[in-house]
Amino acid sequence: MSEHIHKSHNKSLLLYHLVCPIKYRRSVLSDEVEKSLIDVCKSISSRYEIHFVEIGADANHVHFLIQSVPMISAKSIAQTVKSTTAKELFRLHPEVKQRLWGGNFWASGYYVNTVGQYANEDVILKYIQNQGEGKRNYKQLHKTQLSLAFG
To answer: Do 40 and 109 fall into the same domain?
Structure first.
């Protein structure tokens, strides 16, 4: 299980599921390439506050379970992971670059989702709705009010 990350003024536990498809949906992940991918991810962890909890490879895409800090957006995490791994995998495995013409290891898109360790959306919704001392001091905003405010 992931641990909370403690900073001087905050404590967080942010987990992301990032899925990156390989360009042209090519199957280029040999055992050697997968080992290199893990090594590159370890290097990313040592340079950035991006920690890889789990990495899983399918024939043509890779799943990452990543923990990070609030100062780094999901988009920045995806960009860092994709650009660094692509550059290093091409450098370490030129045969892969030959199979993926055009100079890109990853497809242009990705999938990212937050992962809740303690609760899902329904549990958090009920928790928020039940705040306040006997509900006397708690003003509940409803989705219709929120959609108008942030619409």
So the answer is: yes
- In this structure, the answer to whether residues 96 and 149 fall within a common structural domain is no
Model-level pTM? 0.80
Q: What is the pLDDT of residues 67-109, one digit of tens each?
A: 999 999 999 999 999 999 999 999 999 999 999 988 899 999 9
Enumerate the H helices of 7-93 as residue ranges.
31-47, 74-92
Please check whether residue 7 is in contact with residue 83, taking contact to mean a CB–CB distance below 8 angstroms. Answer: no
Question: Within this chain, do residues 73 and 114 fall inside the same structural domain, yes or no?
Answer: yes
Q: How far apart are CA 62 and CA 29, in angstroms?
A: 9
> What's the number of domains the chain is made of?
2
| Mean pLDDT, residues 38-56 | 95
Angle subtended at Cα 105 by Cα 102 and Cα 111, rounded to the nearest 5 degrees: 125
Q: What share of the chain is helix, strand, coil (3-state, %, to 5)?
A: 40, 25, 35
The 10s digit of each residue's pLDDT in 60-72 is 899 999 999 999 9
For residue 86, the domain's CATH number is 3.30.70.1290
Structure tokens at 123: 């549990």
